Amino acid sequence: MPSNTAAWLTAAKAHPLEVKSAPYTFPHENEIVIKNGAVAINPVDWMKQDDGGLLFSWIKFPFVLGTDCAGEVVDVGRAVTRFKAGDRVVGHANGIEQKFNNSAYSAFQNYTVLLDHMVSPIPSTMSYESAAVLPLGLSTAACGLFQEDQLALQYPSVPPPKPTGKTLLVWGGATSVGSNAIQLAGAAGYEVITTASPMNFDYVKRLGACEVFDYNSKTVVEDLIRAFKNKTIAGAMSIGPGAADACHDILNKCKGDKFLAMATYPLPSPPPQTFVLPRTAFHFVSWNIINWFKSKARGIRTKFIFGSTLIDNGVGKVVYVDFLPTALAEGAYIAAPDPHVVGKGLEYIQAGFDLQKKGMSAKKVVVSL
Ligand SMILES: NC(=O)c1ccc[n+]([C@@H]2O[C@H](COP(=O)([O-])OP(=O)(O)OC[C@H]3O[C@@H](n4cnc5c(N)ncnc54)[C@H](OP(=O)(O)O)[C@@H]3O)[C@@H](O)[C@H]2O)c1
Predict the structure, then answer these.
(1) Is residue 100 in contact with ligand 1, taking CB distance under 6 Å?
(2) Whose CA is nearest to atom 33 of ligand 1?
(3) 325 in a domain, yes or no?
(4) Range of 343's domain?
(5) Are 120 and 213 within one domain?
(6) Is ligand 1 within 6 A of the CB of residue 307?
């Protein structure tokens, strides 16, 4: 049995993560184990380290975090036919989800157990560092776009289906979630209008956005309302602080599907770097009350996205089994944003958290293993 090592969060708010041995876990029948070649950091990782218990409250310490990993298959469960030892893959790790609540299924260690249908093979030319940027951004975008209880867009395919004639608003196109939302929506036959800082205009256009607006401009909401004037909106996905209220105002003036899928919960701006429970709870309750009345009056439906709900509802298979392998193999999907590698070894994961927390522009913080 291989010996495993993990970057452990040993207690609430413990800093730094502690690198020490971890059990090696064998896969159940629909699972595989991979030896990680690279892992990526998401805001939820440092938020969980900082918050002390509000997020994923079922987690007991010590615990291993991490959702994004890429590496080589070392073991497969009895029912797995898609993979064999030696295959190069990328996968969404689910250890923090309540249903799993198990460090063996998390990314920040040498060996991770993954669900067969939440894993895709990657081309031989793609590095693990490039592939590791995908999982949570891709999954969150897919939950918001394709789930029946969210925007319920038609599924992506390679080549894309006939254009639907509808246009999606993605607020925050240079985020990891936004980079994937733009590409997935394009692959599903939707035109995309997005927002980003001017330095990322070319970046989001390369991903497939047809128009892009600076979210820091004072006139951005009016500019977007004008851009949608002769279009049928397919709904909106709000990503980033302030995005939900702006998208609400835009949807109010558009014709089409008035649905807002929210990746970022509308917290006070500037966003708190740590969760301050009374302030966050007060904002949560008051925003919901105001939003309920505003949405009723405007005929807009809103829903928060949980980037892991696709595991159980069929969208996970659509993305990781049916779409991504072909899209990557044919060069029809870009693993974006580009990785920013902070170092090699589990010891660098804490440095990755600290860097991600300071904020990155169109880059994903990655650690090589
Ligand atoms: N609900 C879920 O399950 C879920 C899952 C993953 C992430 N999220 C949330 O989604 C958000 C993005 O996460 P991520 O990992 O994709 O982030 P990320 O890749 O770290 O995002 C960095 C980008 O954010 C953009 N940005 C910053 N402030 C913005 C604003 N006010 N409006 C639009 N864009 C803004 C910047 O764009 P420019 O450089 O162009 O300025 C920057 O490039 C976070 O709030 C995160 O907590 C939610």
Answers:
(1) no
(2) 172
(3) no
(4) 4-134+335-368
(5) no
(6) yes
Query: 319-323 long-range CB contacts below 8 Å, 24 or more apart?
Result: 319/138, 319/139, 319/142, 319/146, 319/156, 319/184, 320/91, 320/92, 320/117, 320/118, 320/119, 320/120, 321/82, 321/117, 321/120, 322/155, 323/155, 323/156, 323/157, 323/158, 323/187
Look over the chain and give the mean of its residue pLDDT values, rounded to a whole number: 95
Rounded CA Rg of the chain: 20
Residues 129 and 142 in one domain: no
Instruction: Please state the rounded mean pLDDT for residues 175-201.
Output: 98
Using the 3D structure, point to which of 256, 283, 304 is the last residue of a domain. Answer: 304
Which atom of ligand 1 is least distant from the CA of 177?
Answer: 16
Specify the amino acid at residue 57.
Answer: S
Asked, for residue 49, whether it belongs to a domain, the answer is yes
Q: Which of 284, 304, 324 is the last residue of a domain?
A: 304
For residue 168, report the distance from its CA to the centre of ligand 1, in Å: 18
Strand partners, 34: 73, 112
Poorest-pLDDT segment among 125-134, 292-301, 341-350: 292-301
Q: Is residue 257 part of a domain?
A: yes
- Quick check: 258 and 168 in contact, CB under 8 A? no
The count of structural domains within the chain is 2
The confidence band for 274, taking pLDDT boundaries of 50, 70 and 90, is: low
Two structure tokens written together for 79:
């029912």
Residue 55 burial (10 A CB sphere; 0-12, 13-18, 19+): middle
Percentage with pLDDT > 90 across the chain: 89
Helices and strands, number each (H, E), in the chain: 11, 17
DSSP 79: T
Where residue 228 sits, what CATH number does that domain have? 3.40.50.720
Domain membership of residue 316 (yes or no) is no
The whole-number pLDDT of residue 319 equals 98
CA of 303 to the centre of ligand 1 (A): 17
Indicate whether 210 and 128 sit together in one domain: no
